[in-house]
Amino acid sequence: MGKGRLEAFSDGVIAIIITIMVLELKVPHEPTLEALHELWPTFLSYVLSFVYVGIYWNNHHHLMHTAQSVSGGVMWANLHFLFWLSLFPFTTAWMGENHFEALPTALYGVVLLMAAASWVVLQFAIMRHDGCESPLRRALGRDLKGKLSPLLYLSAIALSFYQRWIADLIYVAVAMMWLVPDRRIESPD
């Protein structure tokens, strides 16, 4: 199967995820600044999740360009990745609606962690399918950001129950770390 079809499907799912997230932003019933002020937690959680989805969309585009073709294994790994991304609207809304309380903030981190883990599974599926000469295998190298991110997510999940604001800062820091597209796979040749 051509990789273009997989990429187009993924683009569509990601667009739907962003649409669902924005629909969670409810319009205030009153035309006052106080009414807008009440929406800040929901808006901030939306912005953070939008950035994360944008990072994954951008890197997914580059990742698919490193793949020579796709197999059934790659397609299932991609669906696994999209499953975790599809939970972003739920955890984003729950965290925002509950003003970054401990459990919603921790669950948000679990979904971030699982999305990161499924991303690694997708990378390995592509490398396994493409074999020893995989452009992705050559491009990844040490993958320091990829190894550091899950550790940061785990620490943020634990901190959610003690210092929520530090957990939230860790989520922001990881997003900032990935904001610039992964140059290793942006142009692997």
Question: What labels describe this entry?
Answer:
potassium transport, 189 residues, transmembrane, single chain, 10 helices, globular, mainly alpha, potassium channel, TMEM175-like
Structural class: mainly alpha
Residue-averaged pLDDT, rounded?
Answer: 91
* Gyration radius from CA atoms, angstroms: 18 Å
**What is the helix/strand order?**
HHHHHHHHHH
Fraction of residues in helices? over 70%
- Which regions contain 5 or more consecutive residues with pLDDT less than 50? none
The number of helices is 10
Percentage of residues in strands = under 5%
Taken together, the total number of domains comes to 1
Overall geometry: globular
The termini sit apart by 23 Å
Number of strands: 0
The biggest beta sheet reads: none
InterPro entries: TMEM175-like
Subcellular location: Membrane
GO molecular function: potassium channel activity; proton channel activity
Protein name: DUF1211 domain-containing protein
